Amino acid sequence: MKKILTLVLIFSSFLALGQSKWNGKFEQMDNMLPTPNQYRTGSGEPGPAYWQQKADYKIKVELDDENQRVTGSEVVTYFNNSPSELRYLWIQLDQNVREQDNFGSQSNGSSLPSTVSQIGTTQAQSVLGNTGFDGGFKLMAVKDTKGNDLTYLINRTMMKITLPEPLKSGSSYSFSIDWWYNVNDRAVLGGRSGYEYFKEDGNYLYTIAQFYPRMAVYDDFNGWQNKQFMGSGEFALTFGDFEVEITVPSDHIVGSTGMLQNPKDVLTKQEINRFEKAQKSFDKPVIIVTQKEAESKEKKKSSEKSTWVYHAENVRDFAFASSRKFIWDAQAVKVGNNTPLAMSYYPKEGNPLWERESTKAVVNTLVNYSEMTIDYPYPVAISVHAASIGMEYPMICFNFGRPRPDGTYDDFIKTRMVYVIVHEVGHNFFPMIINSDERQWAWMDEGLDSFLEYLTMKKYYPDLPYNSNSPEAIVPYMKGSKDFMRPIMTNPEQSLQLGPEAYSKPSAALVVLREQVMGPELFDQAFKEYSRRWAFKHPKPADFFRSMEDASAVDLDWFWKGWFYSTDNVDIEVAEVKWFKVAGEQKNLEARVNAQSGNLGEKAGENDGSPFYGQPQEFKLTDSNVGGEYRSEVENDAIRDRFAGKNVYQITFKNNGGLITPLVIEWTYKDGSKEIERIPAEIWRRNESEVTKLFVKDKEVDSVLFDPFKELADVDMENNVFPNKNKRDSRFDKFKKDGN
């Protein structure tokens, strides 16, 4: 009998591996990632020969408040820091996405409902492909610095300038462009920038971006990143310095990327005094332009003009907002050795919510994101209120969240307003500083930003009804049809559900990685190292993957492959639980097995008060001898004493969803106490579809639950528990019927 039990235990250790179904989920990603080189190393760092281009801009732009038009001229100086000669330059003409018959609308499918009898006017112009809007850049001149015309070719949203002579490595080239375009009405035409018209007082609020021809990125990885702008894939941009003159009606207030250079020319003495006071106010915002003052300007429209001059250094883009409706407040923030100004611009329609919450949210974002990445380096961070938009640019962003017309709001309105400000201000870090390629990889800015948004909201706003970007929140998407999914590693123009696939799924993945796989301390150090390495540079996905592993000593290839390269989900089934007990020397009870599936035992269900049918299967520990060349002896009695009376639970977990995951198990004991046990994901490395593991417990178990806190995005909680009521009832009914 002893030999039989010993052989059973030895065999069960092999049985625990199950019949392995291998899909290579734990194999290394070496063949999936680009080969390390002198520009990008295998550790995820920029290499010793890393280089990137630079583009400086001198821009003069005027906003026509009567005709809603932007007119501008620019001088671009492009620095070729690459080892290659360049015979042409690529310029982005993003406003051309608003041309009639643009590439995006031509390449998008459209249809009417089969039983259509009526359709809204704005929907009609969208699906029928005729907005009636004269959009796109109108180029008036493209010249060199001597006034000579340059040869150029426009391909939809890209313009190729052929250089008179090749631009050699280490050299620079300057050229000028003059243009104008009509500004779009966002309420009718949508868009990341444009204007909002306030019918009640006849005024406009402008959020102006993509307003100038911009250099495309040329790098070691792609050469020119000249993919067409189709609408979903955002921007890839080159760092540089900006000198920008913005001419607007003299009663307008302008918020902009950069620092204002001529406050005495555009602000009143009172506004200047308040602005200077705000730079020393660290506890609360200072109102620079009050609501009363803004309302007064709404009633009068100045025919005079003012020019606001802004400088910005080492930024990848430039945007501004302008309106006579703006209320303006500011507060200083201490971030490391830096003291940036957190500022908000908003019309009266945003109050009282915006005056109470906007700048506070900017402050919270700068502090928390700086702790997770690098200290915020720019002099200002601005939140501008505009209806139904969330969009980001260096130092400035445009955000929704408007109270009801009577000024009231609830927690739902407040939550939406706060989290969009956190998210858009957070984009200063991803991608404005850690400058990824949005046109190709939306998740590298949106996903990382959504993750930090989640952490910031949980830290500073725990009482608000916020549950976005978490493992629990992504479950409805993850359990959906795979026919309507794409992996995270998909270009945004090919994504089927951009919100989950670029924002919330990458965020949920990083929450799992931080909380369940690596632990917060190790994750935070690695994430900060990635941010430090790639601040003011152009990282690619492999640089992120490799940096996180290099700085943590955690092999994460299985994680990236599952979460980022597949559409698998987490669906772990607690398929079988067996209860054993280590017998004392005097015991030799008849063996009984009880489980969710399998032999229920002779006394199953009899008044033992346990969900585990009947009694445990008991086994003895027989003597073992040291073999081979060893001369020592095994302390058999001590080992028997250590395990005597212990409860042994053998659990089989099935991976129905395919996504590799750690195991988080909640044990509930008969005395009512609970215990949480965490098993690393590497338990699946030899069998990706099913694993069996023994757990030794002092107490008798009442129930077992997988993922008790919904931390792992499991899509089916019904099969996570033992005893499973439905399965237990069916098995017990069969037991009674068969009389076994």
Low-confidence stretches: 1-17, 586-609, 730-740
Query: What is the helix tally?
Result: 17
Q: How much helicity do the residues have?
A: 25-40%
Taking strands numbered 1, 2, ... along the chain, how are they ordered across the largest sheet?
Answer: 4-7-2-1-13-17-15
Structural class: alpha+beta
Q: What's the gyration radius in Å?
A: 32 Å
What does this structure look like?
With 740 residues, this protein is of the alpha+beta class. Among the domains are: 150 residues, Neutral Protease Domain 2 (Neutral Protease, domain 2, Orthogonal Bundle); 169 residues, Immunoglobulin-like; 169 residues, no CATH class. Helices cover 25% and strands 26% of the residues. It is built from 17 helices and 31 strands. Strands 4-7-2-1-13-17-15 form a 7-stranded mixed β-sheet. Strands 16-19-20-21-23-22 form a 6-stranded mixed β-sheet, sandwiched between helices. Strands 5-6-3-10 form a 4-stranded antiparallel β-sheet, with no helix packed on it. A hairpin with a 2-residue loop joins strand 5 and strand 6. Helix 8 crosses helix 10, helix 12 crosses helix 13 and helix 13 packs across helix 14. The N terminus and C terminus are likely disordered.
Give the topology, please.
Layout: H1 2-15, E1 54-64, E2 69-79, E3 86-92, H2 103-107, H3 121-127, E4 138-144, E5 151-155, E6 158-167, E7 172-182, H4 186-189, E8 194-198, E9 203-208, E10 214-215, E11 217-219, E12 223-225, E13 240-249, E14 253-256, E15 259-260, H5 263-266, H6 269-278, E16 286-289, H7 291-298, E17 305-315, E18 320-323, E19 327-332, E20 341-346, H8 353-372, E21 380-385, E22 390-393, E23 396-399, H9 411-426, H10 443-460, H11 475-478, H12 498-518, H13 520-534, H14 541-550, H15 557-565, E24 572-582, E25 617-619, H16 636-643, E26 647-655, E27 663-669, E28 674-679, E29 690-697, E30 701-706, E31 721-722, H17 725-738
Helix pairs in contact: 8-9, 8-10, 9-10, 10-12, 12-13, 13-14
